[in-house]
Amino acid sequence: RATSEAEPLRAYAPSMGQIFLRRFQLVTQFRSALETGQVSIHYQPKVALPSRQVVGAEALVRWKHPEFGRVDPDEFVPAVEATGLVDVLTDFVMDKALDRVRRWIDRGLRMSIAVNLSVRTLADEEFPDRVAAALLKHAVPPELLTFELTESGVMADPERALPVLRRLHTMGVVLAVDDFGTGYSSLAYLRQLPVDEVKIDKSFVLGMGTDLGDMAVVRSIVELGHSLSLTVVAEGVEDDAARDQLVSMGCDVAQGYLISRPLSEERFEAWLRARTVQ
Ligand code: C2E
Ligand code: CA
Ligand code: CA
Ligand code: CA
Any idea where the EAL domain is (predicted)? Predict the structure, then answer.
């Protein structure tokens, strides 16, 4: 064995190898993680401005891994996305989310649920059929389901994404552009997309208190959105000052730690009960 030659490599190999191995494990273990209950959905409320009425929630996926502990969606979603498994994730989240909406309807609550879509899903021409089947299964009207999509997701392959989006829109499902303001061609392309809602990226909302530039971006997105008759949602609302600014700008909906962090199903229901006038 040529130990002396292998030695320099070993200084770098373990960490690279560990990153690769972890990613590999996440991808290969994902399906069984779904089946064994390691993956759950957290719910983060959205409230109308200025009334503070709860209008719905965003479904955010969580993975409690037996070895790694809590794994962030920012890590495992892209890994899963790179495989064919993202459909399995989307269908899982959609099924859980629509089951929740059904329970709300049964209690007389009219609240919508937002599900994040990845690039891959937007290129899948059979996806609208699966959405229709899921809505039917849970007997949920399409307008109570929102899909959040990123600009880069649509622009990755607009030829394939647009027909899928048009079909979803025709079905009556609400479409929202997520992380708005972070992309390149925002203004020009927004007019051409069949969308109902824009979500101002939290980086601008978080920066509003200290950065006049961020404030100007938020204000202009609200104005642009309204000029296109879109609902404008702000994410990353962490304090009263941001909320008050958004109210004065006429922003329609707020989401963020000020209202609530994303909560487990049980804790979300408790939060809701505490807020809802009986
Ligand atoms: P996103 O769609 O932009 O989701 C918003 C993120 O901001 C969430 O992070 C949420 O917990 C966080 N957030 C909410 N309010 C505040 C606030 O007031 N301040 C700050 N600093 N952060 C706030 P999370 O849950 O870690 O999700 C990260 C990303 O992972 C999401 O970004 C989304 O792109 C992706 N993701 C989550 N769930 C799913 C899913 O089911 N499917 C897909 N495809 N992607 C998902
Ligand atoms: Ca989102
Ligand atoms: Ca976002
Ligand atoms: Ca994001």
Answer: 23-276
Locate the ligand 1 atom nearest the alpha carbon of residue 237 and give its number: 18
32-88 confidence digits (pLDDT tens): 999 999 999 999 999 999 999 999 999 999 999 999 999 999 999 989 988 888 899
Question: Do you know the residue count of the chain?
Answer: 278
Closest residue to atom 20 of ligand 1, CA basis: 236
- Cα 262 to middle of ligand 3, angstroms: 13
Token look-up 């064995």 returns 1
Structure tokens at 111: 């609240």
DSSP per-residue codes, the chain: --HHHHHHHHTTHHHHHHHHHHHHHHHHHHHHHHHTT-EEEEEEEEEETTT--EEEEEEEEEEEETTTEEE-HHHHHHHHHTSTTHHHHHHHHHHHHHHHHHHHHHTT---EEEEE--HHHHT-TTHHHHHHHHHHHHT--GGGEEEEEEHHHHHTSHHHHHHHHHHHHHHT-EEEEEEETSSSSHHHHHTTS--SEEEE-HHHHHHTTT-HHHHHHHHHHHHHHHHTT-EEEE----SHHHHHHHHHHT--EE-STTT---B-HHHHHHHHHHHS--
pTM comes to 0.93
Phi-psi region of 69 (alpha: psi -120 to 50; beta: other; left: phi over 0): left
Pocket test for ligand 1, best of 60, 180, 237 (most atoms within 8 A of CB): 60
Ligand 1 atom nearest to CA at 258: 18
